Task: structure prediction
Amino acid sequence: MSQFTLNLIVVGGSFALYIGIAIWARAGTTSDFYTASRGVNPIVNGAATAADWMSAASFISMAGLIAFVGYGNSTFLMGWTGGYVLLALLLAPYLRKFGRFTVPEFIGDRFYSQTARIVAVVCLLVCSITYVIGQMTGAGVAFSRFLEVQNTTGLLIAAAVVFIYAVLGGMKGITYTQLAQYCVLITAYTIPAVFISLQLTNNPIPPLGLFSTHAESGLPLLTKLDQVLTELGFHDYTGHHHSMLNMVLFTMSLMIGTAGLPHVIIRFFTVPKVADARKSAGWALVFIALLYLTAPAVGAMARLNIITTIYPDGTAAEPIRYDERPDWMRSWEQTGLLAFEDKNDDGRIQYYNDQSEEFAAIAEERGWQGNEIVTFNQDILVLANPEIAQLPPWVLALIAAGGLAAALSTAAGLLLAISSAISHDLLKSVFMPRITDKQELVAARISMAFAIALATYLGLNPPGFAAQVVALAFGLAAATLFPALMLGIFSKKMNTAGAVTGMLVGLIVTLLYIFTYLGWLFIPGTNMLPNSEEYWLFGISPLSFGAIGALLNFIAAYIVMKLTADPPEHIQELVESIRVPRGAGGAVDH
Amino acid sequence: MSDDKSAAAYWSANVRVITICLIIWALVSFGFAILLRPLLAMLPITIGGTDLGFWFAQQGSILTFIVLIFYYTWYMNRVDREFGVDEE
Result:
């Protein structure tokens, strides 16, 4: 059976499963559609949250992101997990107790203001729409790579599948497909990782393998990696080569942003009790950690593996001949993700850091005329793993299904956040407050279809800023929604004027800072200052600015609150009531 | 909740445990993994051929986060019962 047929069977099978779940988990009421009627087991919700959270980027790119930078990119690992502590301690239990359907709904009710609710809808739409573009393009790329169809066709198939289960099942359908998608993606990620870890370190558990001994050299794996990298002019893997300030601020922005992203928060509306919301956040992090502890191990091992493949007799000896390169390199050259160029015509592959000034002398002495791996896409580290580890073809098929599961599950969660903001926060609350539950359910389904159409369109015609959008989504979630939600719970005296001013300050300042360096609406050439460290305000990178935006939001809200009237008595009572778990069950319907 | 006094006591017990958890949260990530890494490196402890700070950056902080959430859940379930505000 060819690899293509196998991919088709495994991916097709996983899609049939998702659609089957959708038919079983149809939504009958708005409560089903928005919150799965709050009947989801907290551990199931944990797994669904993990799939909701881990995107195509986490699945395919994370390992490479860490492998090519080393210690410096640990910020992603800490940032994308640490946010769950904030969620569990500061937001999830109280928002579950509040017992409504959407994030803007909490902000609108708590700050007794339609304006606050609409500002929150705007922030939600900007965060979620920018984020969903990446998922749709990710699904298109995964399809085209594994199923030999055009990007466009792939994207349309992905959109059709999401359409079926999201429109039919709403949150209920999405929850149980996300559970299935988590199982697919974690299996696909773990199997090749276990084999690579066994080959390199004799330890079957990749996170332990990362800190154990490299079997071939007898040195600790990381020592060996540091050693071969520095011998080739790269900086060492474990060393500190970045600004501490930006590492801290970037990690902080990712953490606060994670906690403020609406598609993650609404997952915690689906559990029966407040205590379940706390527990569920813990399980979500356990399921996320299974991948996030494996990713850095995969990254480091794959990088070492590739270097020792190219320099079989050590970095001081000659690298391999181009025509003797392993098969997996040949097959990935065809995809364009890997490319060689024999710059000095010696028929061998020299892989080293040709940007290093110190190493230039050594390179010249050895007759090297530049790094000959001219394209080395970071995604290869995950995608080619099964071939590097010489695993059977069905493992590669599983990777295909896993990558698609990661993209689809995140897209579905985002689409639900978008569509519920439209049908519940705009339509029901602002334009047509009199519609019945049945009519709102129809409206919710139409909004979902509309959101999918919009995401598909944007996925097919991505605005030029696709790469920057994730930073924007996190920066804005951190600077707008998180502070408003936290103040709404922890400050009884916070009022409309304070919260709205805070959100607007966070939104505007963060957008201005990002656009100043990355261009207005990310249009190249419209940036007012060059995007490099000497021009950054206090040396703060625009990608790390979300944490500063959040701080400014808090300060502005506090000052305005002090200058304006206290919130009315019933609002202060509302805050009292969301602070205690008792009575969460009764708050389900409204 | 019987009266305002116990509501205030419940909330301050909650805020206290949140503060403690968040101090540990910040210490292992921003502290041990980034800012205090040079200090940790002076300790005579190595793990897998590198220093403790690197381990915290790639694994230790994540494992600590998990422990913190489950600890908070366990602790608050107890406090909820103590103050009679648990979900019946």
In short: Residues 39 and 50 of chain B are 14 Å apart (CA to CA).
